[in-house]
Amino acid sequence: MDIGDKKIRRVAIIGGGSAGWITAAALSRSLQDDCSITLVESDEIGTVGVGEATVPPFRLFNRSLGIDENELLKSTQGTIKLAIQFNDWTRKGHSYFHPFGQFGIEFDTVPLQYYWIRARRKGKAGELDEYCMASMAALENRFQRPTTDPRLVESTYDYAYHLDAGLYAKFLRARSEEAGVTRIEGRVVDVSLDGESGFIQSVRLEDGQEISADLFVDCSGFRGLLIEGALKTGYEDWSNWLACDRAVAIPCEHGGEFTPYTQSTALEAGWQWRIPLQHRIGNGHVYCSRHVSDDEATAKLLDNLDGKPLADPNLLRFTTGCRKQFWHKNCVSIGLSAGFLEPLESTSLHLIQTGVGRLLSMFPDRDFGQFNIDEYNRLTRAEYEWVRDFLILHYHATERDDTSFWRECASMSIPDELRYRMDKFKALGHVGATAGAELFGQSSWLAVMVGQMGLPDNDVPIIEHRTAIDAEKLLDELRNLTRDAALQMRTHRRYIQRNCRAESPL
Question: Can you tell me the distance from the alpha carbon of 153 to that of 133, in angstroms, rounded to the nearest whole number?
Answer without folding.
Answer: 7
